[in-house]
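Fill in residues.
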């Protein structure tokens, strides 16, 4: 470990590699809240969250259709106005949609592989 640290402010994120020992600290005077997304082996499914007080917001069934080769991850924040929609698209991999507020209708147009 190199002992380095990085301050993350609203709208920023950091990647933490596999099996890298690390801590999170709140250096501010007010509480903070953040999302942690992890891709783990299914053997870790029954383990408690590694951060005391953390809650699991979403955990899918086993991911059996992971794309082959190098991959990346992205966390997007999306807001749609009432009646709004996006254009038909694909994301080049698997995707999870987690609704934080309101209702989202997910329409699958083509499941061809």
């Amino acid at each position: 470990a190199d002992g380095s640290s990085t301050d993350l402010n609203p709208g920023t994120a950091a990647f933490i590699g596999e099996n890298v020992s690390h801590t999170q600290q709140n250096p501010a005077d007010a509480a903070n809240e953040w999302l942690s997304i992890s891709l783990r082996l299914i053997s870790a499914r029954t383990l408690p969250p590694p951060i005391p007080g953390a809650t699991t917001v979403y955990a899918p069934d086993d991911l059996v259709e992971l794309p082959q080769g190098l991959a990346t991850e992205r966390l997007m924040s999306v807001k749609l106005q009432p009646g709004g929609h996006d254009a038909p698209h694909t994301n080049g991999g698997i995707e999870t949609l987690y609704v934080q507020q309101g209702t989202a209708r997910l329409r699958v147009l083509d499941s061809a592989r």
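The chain has no helices and no strands.
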